[in-house]
Design brief:
With 144 residues, the protein is α/β, with parallel strands linked by helices. It has one domain: Alpha/beta knot, CATH 3.40.1280.10. It contains 5 helices and 3 strands, in the order H-H-E-H-E-H-E-H. Strands 2-1-3 form a 3-stranded parallel sheet. Strand 1, helix 3 and strand 2 form a beta-alpha-beta unit. Helix 3 crosses helix 5. The chain is globular. The relative contact order is 0.20.
Protein backbone atom coordinates (compact mmCIF):
# COMPACT_ATOMS: atom_id res chain seq x y z
CA UNK A 1 0.00 0.00 0.00
CA UNK A 2 1.13 3.57 -0.60
CA UNK A 3 2.62 5.45 2.36
CA UNK A 4 -0.44 7.70 2.66
CA UNK A 5 -2.63 4.63 3.21
CA UNK A 6 -0.30 3.20 5.84
CA UNK A 7 -0.17 6.60 7.58
CA UNK A 8 -3.93 7.10 7.47
CA UNK A 9 -4.67 3.58 8.65
CA UNK A 10 -2.15 3.86 11.49
CA UNK A 11 -3.67 7.16 12.62
CA UNK A 12 -7.13 5.70 13.14
CA UNK A 13 -5.88 2.34 14.43
CA UNK A 14 -3.88 4.00 17.21
CA UNK A 15 -6.98 5.85 18.38
CA UNK A 16 -8.79 2.61 19.12
CA UNK A 17 -8.41 1.09 22.58
CA UNK A 18 -6.73 -2.27 23.04
CA UNK A 19 -10.00 -4.12 23.39
CA UNK A 20 -11.02 -2.81 19.95
CA UNK A 21 -7.69 -3.14 18.18
CA UNK A 22 -7.43 -3.86 14.46
CA UNK A 23 -4.93 -6.13 12.77
CA UNK A 24 -4.43 -6.30 9.01
CA UNK A 25 -3.48 -9.55 7.35
CA UNK A 26 -2.63 -9.19 3.68
CA UNK A 27 -2.84 -12.33 1.58
CA UNK A 28 -1.34 -12.96 -1.83
CA UNK A 29 -3.57 -12.60 -4.85
CA UNK A 30 -4.33 -15.68 -6.87
CA UNK A 31 -2.32 -15.89 -10.10
CA UNK A 32 -3.59 -13.59 -12.83
CA UNK A 33 -2.30 -13.12 -16.31
CA UNK A 34 -3.07 -13.43 -19.97
CA UNK A 35 -3.96 -17.12 -19.83
CA UNK A 36 -4.90 -17.42 -16.16
CA UNK A 37 -8.38 -18.37 -15.02
CA UNK A 38 -10.01 -15.64 -12.92
CA UNK A 39 -12.22 -18.27 -11.27
CA UNK A 40 -9.15 -20.23 -10.17
CA UNK A 41 -7.50 -17.04 -8.87
CA UNK A 42 -10.60 -16.18 -6.83
CA UNK A 43 -10.79 -19.74 -5.51
CA UNK A 44 -7.12 -19.64 -4.45
CA UNK A 45 -7.69 -16.33 -2.65
CA UNK A 46 -10.73 -17.86 -0.94
CA UNK A 47 -8.70 -20.83 0.29
CA UNK A 48 -6.07 -18.50 1.76
CA UNK A 49 -8.74 -16.37 3.44
CA UNK A 50 -10.58 -19.36 4.86
CA UNK A 51 -7.33 -20.70 6.34
CA UNK A 52 -6.56 -17.31 7.90
CA UNK A 53 -9.89 -16.82 9.69
CA UNK A 54 -9.52 -17.80 13.34
CA UNK A 55 -12.08 -20.30 14.63
CA UNK A 56 -14.98 -18.59 16.35
CA UNK A 57 -14.58 -15.23 14.62
CA UNK A 58 -17.65 -13.36 13.43
CA UNK A 59 -17.04 -13.03 9.69
CA UNK A 60 -18.10 -9.93 7.78
CA UNK A 61 -17.65 -9.88 4.02
CA UNK A 62 -17.31 -6.59 2.21
CA UNK A 63 -19.50 -7.18 -0.81
CA UNK A 64 -21.00 -4.79 -3.34
CA UNK A 65 -24.21 -6.86 -3.08
CA UNK A 66 -24.18 -6.64 0.72
CA UNK A 67 -26.34 -4.38 2.85
CA UNK A 68 -25.38 -0.74 3.11
CA UNK A 69 -25.14 0.29 6.76
CA UNK A 70 -25.14 3.74 8.26
CA UNK A 71 -22.40 4.38 10.76
CA UNK A 72 -24.99 4.18 13.52
CA UNK A 73 -26.11 0.76 12.22
CA UNK A 74 -22.49 -0.38 12.10
CA UNK A 75 -22.06 0.67 15.73
CA UNK A 76 -25.25 -1.17 16.73
CA UNK A 77 -24.15 -4.28 14.84
CA UNK A 78 -20.78 -4.29 16.60
CA UNK A 79 -22.43 -3.86 19.97
CA UNK A 80 -24.77 -6.78 19.26
CA UNK A 81 -22.01 -8.98 17.85
CA UNK A 82 -19.63 -8.28 20.73
CA UNK A 83 -22.24 -9.77 23.04
CA UNK A 84 -21.85 -13.04 21.12
CA UNK A 85 -18.14 -13.05 20.19
CA UNK A 86 -15.06 -11.04 20.93
CA UNK A 87 -13.29 -11.16 17.55
CA UNK A 88 -14.25 -10.30 14.00
CA UNK A 89 -12.74 -10.98 10.61
CA UNK A 90 -13.63 -8.49 7.90
CA UNK A 91 -12.94 -9.89 4.45
CA UNK A 92 -11.90 -7.62 1.59
CA UNK A 93 -11.71 -9.46 -1.71
CA UNK A 94 -9.21 -9.13 -4.50
CA UNK A 95 -9.84 -7.17 -7.69
CA UNK A 96 -12.50 -9.65 -8.79
CA UNK A 97 -14.31 -9.96 -5.47
CA UNK A 98 -14.57 -12.64 -2.83
CA UNK A 99 -14.76 -16.36 -3.44
CA UNK A 100 -18.25 -17.83 -3.11
CA UNK A 101 -17.03 -19.94 -0.17
CA UNK A 102 -16.02 -16.77 1.69
CA UNK A 103 -19.39 -15.16 1.04
CA UNK A 104 -21.14 -18.30 2.29
CA UNK A 105 -19.02 -18.36 5.44
CA UNK A 106 -19.82 -14.74 6.25
CA UNK A 107 -22.30 -14.01 9.01
CA UNK A 108 -22.99 -10.66 7.36
CA UNK A 109 -22.35 -8.97 4.03
CA UNK A 110 -21.65 -5.26 4.14
CA UNK A 111 -21.52 -2.87 1.21
CA UNK A 112 -19.41 0.20 1.89
CA UNK A 113 -20.79 1.88 -1.21
CA UNK A 114 -22.44 1.21 -4.54
CA UNK A 115 -19.36 2.89 -6.00
CA UNK A 116 -16.32 0.87 -6.99
CA UNK A 117 -13.57 1.95 -4.61
CA UNK A 118 -9.86 1.23 -5.01
CA UNK A 119 -8.40 -1.01 -2.31
CA UNK A 120 -6.31 1.78 -0.72
CA UNK A 121 -9.43 3.87 -0.18
CA UNK A 122 -11.38 0.90 1.13
CA UNK A 123 -8.76 0.40 3.82
CA UNK A 124 -8.96 4.04 4.91
CA UNK A 125 -12.78 4.22 4.80
CA UNK A 126 -13.07 0.96 6.71
CA UNK A 127 -10.75 1.91 9.58
CA UNK A 128 -12.30 5.38 9.85
CA UNK A 129 -15.79 3.89 10.05
CA UNK A 130 -14.69 1.37 12.65
CA UNK A 131 -13.23 4.20 14.71
CA UNK A 132 -16.36 6.30 14.22
CA UNK A 133 -18.57 3.37 15.29
CA UNK A 134 -16.43 2.98 18.42
CA UNK A 135 -16.87 6.72 19.18
CA UNK A 136 -20.64 6.34 18.91
CA UNK A 137 -20.65 3.39 21.30
CA UNK A 138 -18.49 5.28 23.77
CA UNK A 139 -20.19 8.68 23.40
CA UNK A 140 -16.95 10.23 22.20
CA UNK A 141 -17.31 13.69 20.60
CA UNK A 142 -15.54 12.67 17.34
CA UNK A 143 -18.81 11.51 15.82
CA UNK A 144 -20.50 14.90 16.15
Amino acid sequence: MPAWVETGFAEYAKRLPRDFSVEVLELALGPRGKNASIEKAIAKEGELMAAAIPAGDHVIALDVKGKPWSTEKLAQNFMDWRMERSNFSILIGGPDGLAPACLQRAHARWSLSALTLPHPLVRIVLIEQLYRAWTILNKHPYHK
